[in-house]
Amino acid sequence: MKYLSYVQATLALLLITFTFACGGEQEQKNEELLLGKWELQKASRNGRVTESLTDLYFEFFQDGKMRTNISGLPESVSYEVDGNTIHQREGQLEADYAIESLSDTLLILMTKINDYNFNFVLTKVIQEE
Questions:
Q1: Contact criterion met (CB below 8 Å) for 80 and 88
Q2: What's the mean pLDDT in 86-111?
Q3: What pLDDT score was predicted for residue 78?
Q4: 20 to 30 A Cα–Cα from 75, which one of 36, 38, 87, 108?
Q5: pLDDT 10s digits, 18-50
Q6: Which residues contact 35 (CB under 8 A, 6 or more apart)?
Q7: What's residue 6's pLDDT?
Q8: Which residues, other chains included, contact 28 with Cβ-Cβ below 8 Å and sequence gap of 6+?
Q9: Which of 110, 108, 78 is nearest to 93 (CA)?
Q10: pLDDT tens readout for residues 99-117
């Protein structure tokens, strides 16, 4: 009986360790993939396509700063990645964006602003060297 309890406790500890370790890796991966400039391809407000955000962009930097024009004017603000959430702070608009999908070329964000649900489909701008 003691052996079975020991095995169960060891497995539980390994599971907890693995869960926390993977969470940190995913957050770091998200931060790395986010870096660069993203331009809007499609936006919806409350499930309906909207053209009012046509020129929307986000540009993420390693120092925790980002540039965006989501408030209507370009501004530099701070951001933080927490799991699958981007927290935008210090600007005209403070917002939290849920990362629905993120790859090296595609970023899908969801957020709620002024009681409207927004969905943004963005593609990464490839910098020519």
A1: no
A2: 94
A3: 96
A4: 108
A5: 444 444 565 667 788 999 999 999 999 999 999
A6: 60, 61, 62
A7: 52
A8: none
A9: 78
A10: 999 999 999 999 999 999 9
User: Which 3-state string (H, E, C) describes the chain?
Assistant: CHHHHHHHHHHHHHHHHHHHHHHHHHHHHHHHHHCEEEEEEEEEECCEECCCCCCCEEEECCCCEEEECCCCCCEEEEEEEECCEEEEECCCCCEEEEEEEECCCEEEEEEEECCEEEEEEEEECCCCC
Q: Which two tokens stand for residue 78?
A: 């701070």
Residues in the chain: 129
Query: Which residues, at least 6 apart from 86, have a Cβ–Cβ distance to it below 8 Å?
Result: 34, 79, 80, 96, 97, 99, 109
Triad 75, 40, 87: Cα angle to 5°: 50
